[in-house]
Amino acid sequence: MVQNDKSPEQAASFEQTYDALRRAVEELESGSLPLDIALTRYEQAMALVRACNEILDQAELRIQRVGLDLPAREPAGDSGAPKRAPHH
User: Is the separation of the CB atoms in 4 and 58 below 8 Å?
Assistant: First the structure.
């Protein structure tokens, strides 16, 4: 996977990219575009799909990293204190 070197201000958000994709799909589905424009719009839409997937992949990696930083949870009822042998 390629690391994205863009700052948050430069990179389009997922929502912006997805909205542009949605609009492109609506145009294509309308059937009113001439073939050459429809092909160009399709190519643009596919680039937007790749961009959305890359944003989602990066988000997934961030979630996984956060999960790795969390301490393991103790089973219910276990205080985490060392177990001692009972005294008689």
Answer: yes
Please state, in angstroms and rounded to a whole number, the distance separating the CA atoms of residues 31 and 26: 9
- Does pTM surpass 0.90? no
d(CA 63, CA 7): 19
CA distance 37 to 24: 11
**What CA–CA distance (Å, rounded) separates 53 from 64?**
16
Q: How far is CA 52 from CA 5, 10, 55, 84, in A?
A: 16, 15, 5, 54
CB 28 within 8 A of CB 22: no
Which stretches of the chain score pLDDT less than 50?
1-5, 7, 9-10
